[in-house]
Amino acid sequence: MADRAAFAVLVLNQISKAGLERLPAERYAIGKDIAQPDAILVRSADMHAMEIPASVQAIARAGAGTNNIPVRALDARGVPVFNAPGGNANAVKELVLAGMLMAARNLGAAQRFVAAIDAKQAGLDRLIEEGKKPFAGFELCSRTLGVIGLGKVGCLVADAAIKLGMQVLGFDPEITVDAAWSLPSQVQRAASVEDVLRNAQLVTLHVPLLAATRHLVKAQNLRLMRPDSVLLNFSREGVVDDAAVVAALDAGQLGSYVCDFPNAAILGHPRVIALPHLGASTREAEDNCARMVADQLRDFLEHGNIRNAVNFPEVSMARGSNWRVAIANANVPNMLGQISTAMAEGGLNIHNMVNKSRGDMAYTLVDVDSAVDASVLERIRAIEGVLAVRYLPLT
Ligand SMILES: NC(=O)c1ccc[n+]([C@@H]2O[C@H](COP(=O)([O-])OP(=O)(O)OC[C@H]3O[C@@H](n4cnc5c(N)ncnc54)[C@H](O)[C@@H]3O)[C@@H](O)[C@H]2O)c1
Ligand SMILES: O=C(O)CC[C@@H](O)C(=O)O
Fold first, then answer.
1. Which of 3, 101, 288, 297 could bridge across to 87 with cysteines, CB 3.0–4.6 Å?
2. In what order do the strands lie in the sheet with 144-148?
């Protein structure tokens, strides 16, 4: 292991023990107060205002969304940001189903009505039977569900809705080949967000929060929805303009809003069902996500391999020798030439090498046949465009 007995991992949120125990105590110091961490494990903590120590070589998000992490700033430092694609998708799917049923059957209001009844009151049965009338709802079967964002969560929701007998209209301009294969053939392809809003009675959002998806649903397109329709937001606060939603609810342009991200704009509204960011809060999802990112982090820290980073290509190479150098660099011409020249001039023979790029970022693993002198690493670090260099000898 590179010059030390253990890696230090700073933990910013509660991370499942099932994941933490994948980082053995003899090699990993894990804690909430580590000043010079090699890596950070996080869930939803907002890292945008945080000063991320220069010692940090990787961030691991035990979940899907990485909008709480300053990914672009970390690109410039050559730091990968790992996440857990699909690790919590089933948990979110199940809560979306619960949200659709809560809205369709007025379960929140009905439950509040029952909770407010005085159990000692005379004529309880009659009161309940009379009182239930305003809560009559509609059935999901044969309704049309619009799914915006057909990634890990959206595909599972679409599949479950088909199994409930719903029609499904899906929109995702960047759907992956894997996601397209996993979708039931009955899912119809929508041409735009507007197409979905116009033609579905229930619309559920499963997109990441990006500049392009901020206020994806807003006053201009909420007008297209049917007056009794249901909007569900298990994506992020910010994907929906909540003030516009409240205005649409009040104007009778929207039936109800189910949202996993309560805020002052929507709290207390009678036709809002607000949940406290519960989508991924199941034991199974927390364990899955923690295990996935702990394994990915360990493979990166010890071997330089990259799986499921949102800002780097997938790069994995079996160890071909005891001496490995991992290099993150800008995706510009002649980087490999300069790196291999620095190694050759340092007397190193390259045993095996892999180089991949993704957008502006590139990543190279080089196994060499002998130990690497610090001067060679310094020379590689000095190449313009090199962002991070790690030496990973096996001990
Ligand atoms: N409520 C929760 O607890 C919870 C849990 C998990 C995920 N999430 C949120 O849900 C999001 C989606 O999760 P996932 O695991 O499905 O992610 P994912 O990356 O598998 O899927 C996201 C999909 O959105 C698509 N997309 C991007 N921009 C779009 C646009 N403008 N219109 C339509 N589709 C677009 C992408 O092509 C991708 O297929 C996460 O980024 C996160 O913000 C919330
Ligand atoms: O960690 C959580 O509880 C929420 C995670 C969820 O929002 C995600 O994006 O995966």
1. 288
2. 188-189, 167-171, 144-148, 202-205, 230-233, 256-259, 272-274
**CB-based pocket (< 6 A), ligand 2:** 43-44, 63-65, 88, 279-281
Together in a domain, 264 and 293: no
The pLDDT, as a whole number, for residue 2 is 41
Q: Which of 246, 274, 302 is the last residue of a domain?
A: 274
- Please state, in angstroms and rounded to a whole number, the distance separating the CA atoms of residues 96 and 293: 24
pLDDT, tens digit, 9 for 90 and up, residues 123-165: 999 999 999 999 999 999 999 999 999 999 999 999 999 999 9
Q: Does any domain span residue 39?
A: yes
Is the pLDDT at 77 greater than 70? The verdict is yes
**Site to substitute for ligand 1 among 153, 213, 216, 310, most atoms within 8 A of C-beta:** 153
Long-range contacts of 137-140 (CB under 8 A, 24+ apart): 137/104, 137/105, 137/106, 138/104, 138/228, 139/104, 140/100, 140/101, 140/104, 140/164, 140/165, 140/166, 140/202
Which of 221, 249, 274 marks a domain boundary?
274
Residue 289: which CATH number? 3.40.50.720
Q: Measuring from atom 1 of ligand 2, which residue has the nearest CA?
A: 43
CA of 346 to the centre of ligand 2 (A): 46
Tens of pLDDT, residue by residue over 298-334, are: 999 999 999 999 999 999 999 999 999 999 999 999 9
Residue 371 lies in a domain: yes
Is there an atom of ligand 1 within 6 Å of 217 CB?
no
pLDDT in tens, 87-110: 999 999 999 999 999 999 999 999
CATH number (domain holding residue 379): 3.30.70.260
Q: Look up the domain containing 348 and give its range.
A: 314-395
Nearest bound ligand to the CA of residue 283: 2
Q: Mark whether 97 and 245 lie in a shared domain.
A: yes
Query: 219 and 94, same structural domain?
Result: yes
